[in-house]
Specification:
The complex is a heterodimer of chains A (242) and B (84).
Chain A: H1 9-19, H2 23-38, E1 45-53, E2 58-62, H3 65-77, H4 81-88, E3 92-94, H5 104-109, E4 117-123, E5 129-137, H6 145-168, H7 176-199, H8 203-217, H9 221-229
Helix pairs in contact in A: 1-6, 2-6, 7-8, 7-9, 8-9
Chain B: H1 10-29, H2 34-43, H3 50-57, H4 65-79
Classes of the chains: A alpha+beta (242), B mainly alpha (84).
Chain lengths: 242, 84
């Protein structure tokens, strides 16, 4: 077991999650840590992590600009090894980019890059999102079976923290109820302000006035409020047209 | 329960208790969640927080008359079954 004064990898990931102000920041940290760990034996490695939430919201984080471009290109073509790993949730290996016949359009477009081999492995998450870790190496056949197993283990070790991050940074999608309540509230508040001004009363008494007007006109309170705001009568006011 | 100054005398308190009991029963009988009801109540001008609404609907707190009226309205309009 790790000694207390040594930060374990999982603690490090947890710190990363707690310190990241948003999901993209967290993912960027994850990509950077991955590149450092997977390239620890001296090989230069670019790592990217792609996350697609249900509904198509995708986040890409890369350990370098080059990695970012390599991933973005796949999105441009909507095809490529990491998109396949992500969508089919299986490991995809390209040992020699120059001689791979799959994904030819994508590979042609990155032929000028120095990347020679690619390994893309899925990171298992919950049902709300799919994720993949992509490693780009500058030598052909950089990923032997042991290296593939290492990358897969690394991806598996990130699964838990990624699921937490997805939950913590769930996209804020206020439902229709929320939006309509917010709109309606603005109108009611404006009407309340007008009634208070006219009656020189408090907020609760203005609300009571609105409720009474709604009841006697058989209308919803938000309809009465809209009429008041639109310059209609102000119930209960000395000059109101009751 | 304390008798707050806006509650009036014992008769009004009994009436408020009865009104509150009906509201609580009606909420429990509906399939509407507290969040949904509170959001609607907020939308029509409601001022008390979700916790206070919860307490009211569990007959543990009285609310000012204007707020009670809005809770009732929210139920009428959102849960339905009574006008609107």
């Amino acid at each position: 077991m790790a000694k207390e004064n040594i930060i374990s990898p999982s603690d490090r990931l947890q710190d990363l999650l707690l310190d990241s102000p948003g999901f993209p920041d967290f993912l960027l940290g994850l990509a950077t840590i991955s590149a450092a760990q997977l390239g620890a034996d001296g090989r230069t490695m670019e790592c990217t992590i792609t996350v697609e939430r249900n509904g198509g919201l995708a986040t890409v984080a890369a350990s370098s600009q080059e990695g970012y471009r390599l991933d973005e290109t796949q999105y441009g073509f909507d095809i490529g090894p990491c998109l396949t790993a992500l969508r089919q949730q299986r490991t995809v290996l390209i040992g020699d980019l120059a001689n791979d016949l799959r994904w030819s359009r994508y590979l042609d477009s990155i032929a000028e890059d120095n990347v020679r081999s690619v390994l893309a492995v899925p990171i298992h998450t919950d049902s709300s999102a799919r994720a993949a870790l992509n490693s780009y190496a500058y030598t052909t056949h950089a990923f032997n079976p042991a290296a593939i197993a290492f990358v897969e283990d690394h991806a598996a070790s990130m699964s838990r923290i990624l699921r937490l991050a997805l939950r913590l940074h769930a996209p804020e999608a206020p439902g229709d109820d929320f939006r309509s309540a917010l709109k309606s509230r603005a109108v009611v508040d404006a009407a309340v302000a007008l009634v208070m001004l006219q009656t020189r009363g408090g907020r609760n008494s203005a609300l009571t006035v609105l409720q009474a007007a709604a009841a006697s006109n058989n209308k919803r309170i938000r309809e009465i409020a809209a009429e008041i705001v639109d310059g209609g009568y102000i119930p209960g006011s000395p000059d109101g047209r009751q | 329960m304390m008798n707050a100054d806006w509650m009036g005398g014992p008769d009004q308190l009994n009436e408020a208790d009865a009104h509150r009991r009906i509201a609580a029963k009606r909420f429990q009988a509906s399939k509407v969640t507290l969040v949904e009801l509170w959001t609607y109540y907020y939308g029509i001008g409601g001022d008390v927080d979700e916790l206070a609404l919860d307490a009211y609907l569990n007959e543990a707190l009285h609310l000012p008359a204007a707020q009670v009226g809005l809770v009732t309205l929210a139920m009428n309009e959102f849960i339905g079954g009574d006008g609107a």
